[in-house]
Structure formats: structure tokens, C-alpha cells
Specification:
Strand content: under 5%
CATH class of the largest domain: Mainly Alpha
Distance between the termini: 25 Å
Number of strands: 0
CATH architecture of the largest domain: Up-down Bundle
Shape: globular
Order of helices and strands: HHHHHHHHH
């Protein structure tokens, strides 16, 4: 049971109703995470702004989903693993083997691997990145814009991981459990 009420879009009023309507328009659905965030319309608005902006960014949807899976796994967030596994499988059409590889921070594509390594270094080190990891991202062909978007995706996913874990948001997707490991 979620630690805060999951605001129902049908009965919400004021700013919460506005942001839940914006969620439906931006995401095409209103997940429990957004319903929990609606307890603070400002927090939901901030999430939607970053979500919408990154959706229009240069990183392809499949890479954004790989990043989300790797970060959710690193942070042990079952809600985000469940949601992003569903999106990776049904929306961006990643094969199960690639979903599993992303959870381990791996990709056969060198540029995607470099982005995953960069994202996990940022997550693990809470910002600082080893020179070798940054240099590998450059050598794999990540542009300045792509590097900054990797960082923005890390921030967005850490935010949602923390919201879902701290608030114990009810998972409405087929549940995916993190692997047993030490969190980032």
C-alpha cells in the first residue's frame, strides 16, 4: 500500500487535476507514480517537464529505456523495473535478452554500452565520473548533447526510483524484482 494517497484523476481538483490531465496527455496514461506525485502538483509538473523534454531529445527511445532499466536495477526499484520492462518490451520492442542485458548495464552496441557505463558511473558515484569512463563515452561517439542527456536521464530516473521506493508506490505492471545486489 502506497504511503501517500494515489490521487484519482476523476476526483482531483485544482493544480493536482491539471497535472494529472497533463500526465495523461504527455504519457498517454496516468500511472500510480504520477498519482502519488500529484500530492505535490509542483513535483509532478517538474517530472512531466523533464519527461517531455527528454522525449524530444537526441537519445533514441530504446536507449532511454535501457538507461532506465540499468538505473532502476542499480537502485533496486521494482516499480521502475516493472514499468520500464513493460515499455521496453511493448513500446520500443526490445527483445527479452536486451532487456536483461540493460538491467546488467550491458549492450552489444558500443555507443549504447558507453552510455550505460556513463549512466551507471554517475549513479554509483553520485555524480563524479572516472576519466576512463568519460573518455570511453567520447571514443564511442557520444556527443556533448548526448552526454548531457545521459546525465539528465540519470537524474530523471533517480528521481522516480526514489519517489517510488520512499513512497512504496503500488506497482500496477507485471512485477519485476531487482536482482540481489548491493545498491549503487
Amino acid at each position: 500500500m502506497s504511503r501517500v494517497p494515489l490521487i484519482d484523476p476523476a476526483t482531483a481538483t485544482g493544480a493536482a487535476a491539471e497535472q494529472l490531465a497533463a500526465t495523461q496527455q504527455t504519457m498517454g496514461l496516468t500511472p500510480n507514480m504520477a498519482r502519488a506525485l500529484a500530492n505535490s502538483p509542483a513535483a509532478l509538473k517538474g517530472f512531466l517537464g523533464l519527461f517531455g523534454a527528454l522525449k524530444q531529445g537526441t537519445l533514441p527511445p530504446a536507449l532511454q529505456e535501457r538507461l532506465a532499466l540499468a538505473i532502476a536495477e542499480a537502485n533496486g526499484c521494482s516499480y521502475c523495473l516493472s514499468a520500464h520492462t513493460m515499455v521496453a518490451r511493448n513500446v520500443v520492442k526490445l527483445p527479452q535478452a536486451e532487456i536483461e542485458a540493460a538491467r546488467h548495464g550491458r549492450s552489444a552496441e558500443p555507443k549504447d554500452q558507453a552510455a550505460l557505463s556513463l549512466a551507471l558511473a554517475i549513479t554509483r558515484n553520485r555524480g563524479p565520473v572516472e576519466k576512463e569512463v568519460f573518455d570511453a563515452a567520447r571514443q564511442a561517439g557520444l556527443s556533448d548533447e548526448e552526454i548531457v542527456e545521459v546525465i539528465a536521464n540519470v537524474a530523471r530516473n533517480i528521481f522516480t526510483n526514489y519517489v517510488n521506493e520512499a513512497l512504496e508506490v503500488d506497482v500496477e505492471w507485471p512485477r519485476v524484482t531487482p536482482f540481489a545486489h548491493t545498491p549503487a
